[in-house]
Amino acid sequence: MSNDAWRPWADVAVRSAGFPIHELLRLADPETAALALDPESSAERIHESWHRGIHRTSAHLLSMAEGDSFQAALLWQNPHAVEHVTGWLRRHAADTTRTRDRRRKEAKLTRYAQRYHARNETIGFFGPCTWTDFSDDVEVITAQPGPNLVAAREVHFEDWAIDALGTALAKDPAIRRRLAPARLAGVVVQGPLALYPDGSPCRLPSVDAAVLAAVDGTRTPRSLTAELRWQGFTGVTREDDVVAALERLLARGLIVWRPDVPVDPWPERALRRQLQALPESDGRAAALDALAQLEDARAAVADAADQPAGLAKAFTLLDQRMKQLTEAPAVRTKDQGHYGRRAVYEDCRRDVDVRLGAGLRSSLLPPLSLMLDSARWLTWRFGDHLESLIGELYDQFAGMTPGNGVPLGIIVNQFLDRISDPAWSAPLVEEFQKSWSDILSWRAGERRVRRDSAGLAVPVAAAFAAPPPLWYGAAQHSPDVMIAAAGLGELQAGRYEFVLGEIHLAMATLDNYAFTTAHPDPDRLRHAAEAGPADRPRVVPIYPRSPKVTGRNYPTPDLFSDRYWYLSFAPGNGARAVPRGRSLPLDELVAERTGTSITVRTRSGARMRVLDVVGELTQEVLVNLFQPLPPLPHTPRVTIDDLVVAREKWRLPAHTIPAGSGRDEPAAFAALRRWAETTGLPRFVFWRAAGRTKPVYLDFDSPLFVNDFLASVRQARGDGVVELTEMHPDPHHVWLPDADGHRYTCELRLVLADQSG
């Protein structure tokens, strides 16, 4: 397939770390590492050198952590660590005894250090992003840093925090009865029975069943009363009858009855509109004042920026007001969701002007297009497999439901449960990996595999022939690409290579709030997203509130368009507002068999192909399936032209890694350093163990990072597997500068649109 088959979006995001990479190198102990590799070194000499090294590197780690920016980052993420980790290490700095507490706290701090200095993120000042584009006026690249790390910052409420305030305010009966109740997401009404989301039934009195059936997330008790009386239902004669039924339904956990706070970046705006719509009363005034108090506390956090003293004071005020006004915890626990533990979050735009040149683009597109051709094939196979599953489910339920067709909601619930099991998509990924292995055909033990795109064009086209995308979202894929160069000057001189991080399948990751908020012209991004397959309608799921979805990490797209349709699940449960007349309520859609295909019939009688309607619901499962090499004990670095499409990787049983017992740290360090050298591992790697989803930085020359790694290896012993991937670019091959000349890790996030249709 020619490069013309893939059209890059004009805009590219630059994701980066918020702290310079060189600081991590100061946590290394090259002297002890060299002794460990010297067969003439005695255990005593290694022991003495290791203790000197751990004392020095631990002191430097503490010095890093006590810096203003590091302290501010901890206040955002884990304020407990400021006092109980950094503070503890400072109080015990004079006592160098290697106690269990010291090792644990060093490991905790080490983990934060690697995240802030070595991980490309899009969160706060410790993961600022910026925008760039490809320019014909630039040959390779330009990067001009401003005087500061951050050029602009915004502090937003987490939607759960404003929802908690709305819930507390709705405890006032005078406020609550003016609000529209909604069925809890997943609740189904079948005559006198209500089915909970888990399918368990609840038999209701006739009045309660009638009220629950009429609840739609838009009708207040007064409107519900009028609706039921208009229907001729005799069990309701006045509004108080409906209110009493709603109270019973609320107690049963079948409805929510509070302000409808959307899962978006400005939840306080929706709450204010709903409060202002209430009749004037003391309760209304008190509710608006409560919201204003939280907004004042948020403003204090924004004003403090990254100054730890002011930030700590501002967070104390915010936490106090959250507890006082919501009667709920001010900070969520880990169990309540990975994202958004604090009541507010910050997004920052990096203070640097980057321009990508035509030379970069022309060298990147040929090899990247081959990878995208295979991504098209994998997405097609996924969609084809899904369509078969939907057909099986339709046939299973067709004889069990009255009328023509099957309610689409039944099929959606079933297939989402099935495809969430990795075993469902495993055969597709294995087929994908076998094709790439056959094409690349490397020898066992080979560490560097180099191919050229021209030579691979024919076998890739043969192995990955695929029809045009099966749904709108399947036409866009989002690669993360790094550039390895020993500084900006080397990069500009053409001495570099690209490194492919991930390809996020069937997703335009740039159409996400974390990026759009920093873009100078979001409408330009919207227009790029709208330029998808002309023969495919786009149906965007509108997700209700859940522990997995927040206003910040809301699935793409963030920029809604009146050209799209919107699949709605649970009105009144935090769903975002959509353009008027473009909603497709799931409970009004019916699946029907048309020949060998399944189509979806809307309430108006229109028909759509089933994958057009449900394709984007698979985003969470499909997005990370692009893994071209199989999970062997060792796979090589694979380079096509100037693009490293796979970094060298090892997958090893944890019990084969010399981890020791943890009591003799110098001996364990030396054993691991020798093992890494013998195994052929580079000095810098990223590792995962015991189910970790995020890779962790490891410098085999650093006692601190080795200790952290070995602790996890010991936990993974048994049948655990440890995955190690070469760090490429490594700390000596990053190029993004700041005003002081320090360099930062970064990656380019692109979106490429499939033009094959």
UniProtKB/TrEMBL annotation:
<dbReference type="Pfam" id="PF04738">
    <property type="entry name" value="Lant_dehydr_N"/>
</dbReference>
<protein>
    <recommendedName>
        <fullName>Lantibiotic dehydratase N-terminal domain-containing protein</fullName>
    </recommendedName>
</protein>
<dbReference type="InterPro" id="IPR006827">
    <property type="entry name" value="Lant_deHydtase_N"/>
</dbReference>
<feature type="domain" description="Lantibiotic dehydratase N-terminal">
    <location>
        <begin position="69"/>
        <end position="360"/>
    </location>
</feature>
<feature type="domain" description="Lantibiotic dehydratase N-terminal">
    <location>
        <begin position="628"/>
        <end position="704"/>
    </location>
</feature>
